[in-house]
Amino acid sequence: MEKYLLKILGSGAALPSNLSNQSAQVLSMCGRNYMIDCGENAQAMLRKYNVNHSKLNHIFISHLHGDHCFGLLGLISTLDMLGRMCDITVFSHPGLEEMMKPMMAHFFKGLHFNVHFEEFAPGKHELIYDCNGLEVYTVPLKHTIHSSGFVFKEKEKQRHIIRSKVDFYQVPVRMLQHIKNGGDFVTEEGKVIPNSELTASADPIRSFAYISDTAKSERIVEYISGVDLLFHESTFLDINKARAKQTLHSTARQAAEIAKLADAKKLVLGHFSARYKSREEFLSEAREIFENCSLGNDGAEFEF
Amino acid sequence: MEKYLLKILGSGAALPSNLSNQSAQVLSMCGRNYMIDCGENAQAMLRKYNVNHSKLNHIFISHLHGDHCFGLLGLISTLDMLGRMCDITVFSHPGLEEMMKPMMAHFFKGLHFNVHFEEFAPGKHELIYDCNGLEVYTVPLKHTIHSSGFVFKEKEKQRHIIRSKVDFYQVPVRMLQHIKNGGDFVTEEGKVIPNSELTASADPIRSFAYISDTAKSERIVEYISGVDLLFHESTFLDINKARAKQTLHSTARQAAEIAKLADAKKLVLGHFSARYKSREEFLSEAREIFENCSLGNDGAEFEF
Questions:
Q1: What is the pLDDT of residue B132?
Q2: Residue A52 Cα to chain centre, angstroms
Q3: Cβ distance of B106 and A18 shorter than 8 Å
Q4: CB-CB neighbours of A249 under 10 Å
């Protein structure tokens, strides 16, 4: 089974610190690399953390705050210098293409690939990408501007054929796809062999949810229910929860509460405010609520 | 005498490397900090290298290639978060304001200071800044697009009054400014005391020249003649001088030749291509021509 990997390129909130870059992650899933948010310096982090950029064709921007997208210009520019020929698609809330247009027209004259912008609707939960066995859904968040999370989810998989049973009932090859899809088999004598006898369960569907800048929102739980890996912003510690509420961000405790409600398998914290010198308290605070939790510091990797 | 300081924030050419950030420097001169070029991540380097941003009100962009200005959006954004109230002036070739306008309109709603753009004429040597005892002149360079160097130069200074002489001739206080400016003194008896008897020479005028992306250009020598500190790009080693010629960049040897022709006191090399693993060869190559030479690596500082 292909190992899926989340790599954190930047774990800091808007104000930069010496500890971290701004938000950017790369998800390796279903044979491709997907960039999620692209804060300043993301291109340098791609290099530092050895991300294969030839497999990177899609970038998902959670919301139009600078610390989540100011790295786009530099990234596109560098990919071009590295000899890229494949197009890039940038998913974002409406407006990004329009506002980047004049800079792109100047700086990307003679670019060797196209940059497509796909705008998704604010405040909705909808499918925005479906390709290569992967689906990506938006998750409406609660922030000072329209902000979206993303759920990356394998598509429904086929059931596994039980070879010995298929041979026993002499199922013709042309019927195998029908059976993988869950269909029963009818013998020449008219006997119905139920699918459950011919197949074993499909592999479990793996999924990852990225919950970007947001106040604690229980509304999202239904969308991220049961994910294998949940990234949830935790800009603040609970001691500053008034500040979190005011700025529409979450605390580590709140992130853990959401992870618990959603029955996620693992929680990764990130988007840490520069005001905290150490991050260990984020971890201990969250673990009081949700044990399987890690810090998503710059360079951290999580398999699922 | 105030010490002037050049601090290198980014020493790399366009393609990022693990060795360096893209072009950005801060010049501390005449009581203020001046940023010269603002490649991506310059704001993080300001923090890393402890630059006092409250003294930073002016940014000079040498040319409109991304590796020299993609850091502007992030820098402005961060300065605002840090509570800045003072305006910032960005000097550049024409077009930057226009192309940044839509992004600024979105990302900088409610900015607590103004960003003024001052456009200077391409291909000219002219005074673009005159304030605080400092003048800044453009230097026309030879690159794939309009590119300018900058000369930062103290203004003409006043001569030093020789106290004992002034007392001896009973020069009235109201005449002192006239004498500092080089004027003679006429006693009540009508005797002319030449200025040279009343004053000592003014302090020498200190200057710094920043020579950004350019092919070797002897035309610039007259503009940078005698500078205390010369930064000159040296993207390539001489072994790749054909490539330098083709891309309108300089080699370390060529930078040294210009430093020698200009009779600069010290040369700093930078804008190193990522193709070279080590930078020592830049230094040895340049020193064959011009001995007082250093590598302008990220974080390096040069007093003058």
A1: 86
A2: 17
A3: no
A4: 25
Task: Give me the sign of the Cα torsion angle B45, B130, B155, B232.
Answer: positive
What global pTM score does this model have? 0.92
> What tokens were used for B175?
């005449």
Mutate to test the interface with B, among A70, A73, A75 (most CBs of B within 10 A): A70
- What does the pLDDT average to over B122-131? 97
How does B223-261 read in b/e, with b if 16+ C-beta sit within 10 Å? bbeebbbbbbbbbbbbebbeebeebbbbbbbbbbbbbeb
Mean per-residue pLDDT, B199-228: 97
Contact A41 B41 (CB under 8 A): yes
Task: Sort out which chain A residues have CB atoms less than 8 A from B48's CB and list them.
Answer: 18
The shortest C-alpha distance from A92 to chain B (Å) reads 14
- Angle, helices A252-262/A280-287, rounded to nearest 10 degrees: 40
Q: What H or E segment, with its residue span, contains residue B69? A: none
| B16 pLDDT above the threshold of 80 | no
Crossing angle of helices B96-107 and A96-107, rounded to 10°: 160
**Percentages of chain A per state (helix, strand, coil), in multiples of 5:** 30, 30, 40
> Do the Cβ atoms of B65 and A107 come within 8 Å?
yes
Residue B158 CB coordination number (10 Å): 14
Does the ipTM exceed 0.85?
A: yes
Name the interface residues of B facing A (CB cutoff 8 Å): 14-18, 21, 40-41, 43-44, 47-48, 64-67, 70-71, 73-74, 77-78, 81-82, 95, 98-103, 105-107
Total length of chain A: 304
% of chain A residues with pLDDT over 70: 100
**Pairwise CB contact (< 8 Å): B74 & A66:** yes
Question: Per DSSP, what are the bridge partners of residue B142?
Answer: none
Measured between CA atoms, the residue of chain A closest to residue B70 is A74
Closest by Cβ to A40, choosing from B16, B41, B65 = B41
The strand pairing partners of B6, in sequence order, are: B27, B302
Do A64 and B106 count as a contact with CB atoms less than 8 A apart?
yes
Residue in chain B closest to A16 (alpha carbons) equals B44
Strand, coil or helix: what is A163? helix
Alpha-helical (H) ranges within A71-175 are 72-81, 96-107, 163-168
Written as six digits, the tokens of B85 are 């109230």
Name the token pair of A65: 């705050």
Q: Which residues contact B79 (CB under 8 A, 6 or more apart)?
A: B43, B53, B88, B113
How close A95 gets to chain B, by Cα (Å)?
A: 9
Q: Please list, in sequence order, all residues whose beta carbon lies within 8 angstroms of the beta carbon of residue B26, skipping any fewer than 6 positions away.
A: B6, B7, B9, B33, B34, B35, B36, B46, B49, B51, B56
Distances (CA, A) of A274 to A18, A300, B29: 9, 18, 30
Respond yes or no: is residue B80 known to be catalytic. Answer: no
Q: Is B148 left (phi over 0), alpha (psi -120 to 50) or beta?
A: beta
Max avg pLDDT among A153-157, A172-176, B229-233 = B229-233
* Closest chain A residue to B65, measured at CA: A107
How far is A250 from chain B, CA to nearest CA, in Å?
Answer: 19
The amino acid sitting at A220 is: I
